[in-house]
Input
Amino acid sequence: MAFAIEVKDLVKYYGELLAIDHISFQVEKGEIFGFLGPNGAGKTTTQRILTGIIEANDGAVWIMGYNIRKDAFYAKSLMGIVPEMANPYIDISAWENLMLMGELYGVPKETRIKQADKLLKMLGLNERKNAKVKTFSKGMKQRLLLCIALISQSQLLFLDEPTVGLDVQSARLIRNLIAELNKEGVTVFLTTHNIEEANQLCTQIAIIDHGKIATIDSPENLRQAFRSMQSVEIGFAIPFDDTRLLRKLAGVSQVKKVGEKFRLYTEEPAKVIYELVNLSRTNNIKFTTLNTLGPSLEDVFVKITEQHKGWDYEKH
Amino acid sequence: MKNTKKVKQELRRAWAIAKKDIRIYYFKSPVIIFGIIFPFFLFLAFALGRNISPVFLFPGIIGMTLFFTASSVGPIIMPWEARMRTLERLLSCPVSIQFILLGDIFAGFIFGIIISLVPFLFAILGFGLAMHNLPLFILSILVSSFCFSSLGILLSSPPSDNPSNIMMLSNLVRLPVIFISGIFIPIEHLPAAGKIIANFSPLTYTVDLLRYGFEGVSLYSVSRNVSMLILFLAIFLLLGMKLHKRNLVKRL
Output
C-alpha cells in the first residue's frame, strides 16, 4: 500500500543544535495522524520539512509517492496546508485570497470560483467575502486559512495548531470539518498541543520529544499500554485527609488529591475498590462518589515526554 | 517535455504572485516615498536653476526614475511577508523560490515602466523632444527595468522582517549610484576616478542608452551598454536568488 506520507531517517540541524534526530514514520491514506509534543520538541520543524518549506540535512520524505526534495512541485500540488501562526493577506479580500491561492495551485478559474463559493459558505464567511481580511477576527482568519488549504481539493491536509487561540464555536466548526473531510477520504496530518483534540480526532498519534519519536500508536492502545496509570477516584462524605491510609491500601501505587476527591493510581482497579469498601466498613466512612478512570491521553503524554529517555512503554 | 510544462505552469504562478504584489505593495508608503517622491525632489534639488539642455536632462531623469521605481518594490516584499506571517503559506505553494522571486521582479519591472512613462511623455509632449531610435529606447527601458527590479530583490535578501531596515540599506546603495552614472554631470566631465567608478554602475549604461535613443550619440557603444546591463541583470538575479534561498529559514 502506498502511504500518504513516508518519512525515513530524517535529520535536521540548526547550526549545532540537533532539532530532528533520525525520525521515521508512515501515515496511511485516510488517517488522521496526530503529531504531539511539548514546545521545542521539533513538531513545526518536522511539518516544515514534510511540506517542503525547509530542507532536511539527511533522510527522505515521500508525499503520495513523490520525493519532497526532488519532486517538490508535484508533492506540494497534492497538499493543503495551514501553517502555525500564519495569516492570510490582510490587505486584500477573502475572495481575492482564495483566487490567488487557487492560481498558485493551478486550479482552473471556473473550478476555483465554484470551490471558493462553496468553502466560504461552508465556513460561514460568505457574507464578508469582499471585505478586506484586516477587518476579520482571529477565528475568521483561521477559517479563511482552512478555506485556502482546501481550495485545491487536496487529498492530504497539514494542519499546524489549527484551533489554537480560537473561540469555542470556531474551534468546534474546524474540528467537525476535519472529521467530515476525513470521512470523505482526506488524510490529515494534525500537529497540535491540544491532547483532547488529538484524542477526539486522531486514528494514530505520534509523540515527539527532543527531536525523537517517543511513541506511535492509536490513542486507545497508548492508554492501554499505560495500565499502571489507571486510577480509582473517590470522594468522602466527611472531611478526610489521611492520604497515608489510602497509600497503604493493597494495589495502590500513588495517591493524588484532586479538589475534594482522591485519585488512587493502580494496575488493579477492582482490588483497590474492594480495599476501599473494607476501609469504609471498618472505619464507618461513607463515600459520595467512586469512579474508575482509564489513563487519559494527557497522562500518557506527560509520562512519555517526562521519561521517554530509555523508556519502553510496552514493558509497562 | 514534462519540464517545459512545469516551467510554463510556474511562470503562470509567478505572474499570479506579481498581480498579488501589485495589489498589495504598490501603494505602501515606503514604495511611494522612496520610489517616487524622493527621486522627484532629488531631481528638483539638482536640476532646477541650472542651465541644462532638455536633451541631456531627460535621459538622466528617465533613467533615474526607472532606477528608483523599479528597485523600490522588491525590497519591501519579503520583509513585509515575513512580518505579516504570510511568507510560510506562500512558500508551501507549488512554486519554487526562484519563481516566487521572479513574480516579485515582474511587479517591480512593471512599476518602473509605468512611472518612467511620466517623464518620458513630459519630454515628448511637453518639451517636444524627438526620438532618434525608439525601438532601442524601448529595449533599454525593458532591460534596465528588469535589471533594477532584480537589484531590488537582491537588496531585500538580508533576513530582516523590518521593511524600514531594508529600505534604509537599499537607499544606502542606491543614492551614491545616481551621482556616478552621468545623470547630472556627463561621465566625460568626471575626474579619472569617477570615470572608473561609473563603469560599476548599471545606471551608467541605461542613461547612455537612453541618450542614444534621443540624440543618436552615446559615450559607449550600444552593444557594450546592452551587454553590461545584461551582465548586471544576471549578477543581481543569480546572487539575489542564491541569498534568498540561503536566508529563507531565518525569516520564518
In short: Chain B has one domain: 2-251. Residues 2-251 of chain B form one domain. The interface with chain A takes residues 6, 9-10, 12-13, 16-17, 19-20, 23-24, 84-86, 88-96, 248-249, 252 of chain B (CB under 8 Å).
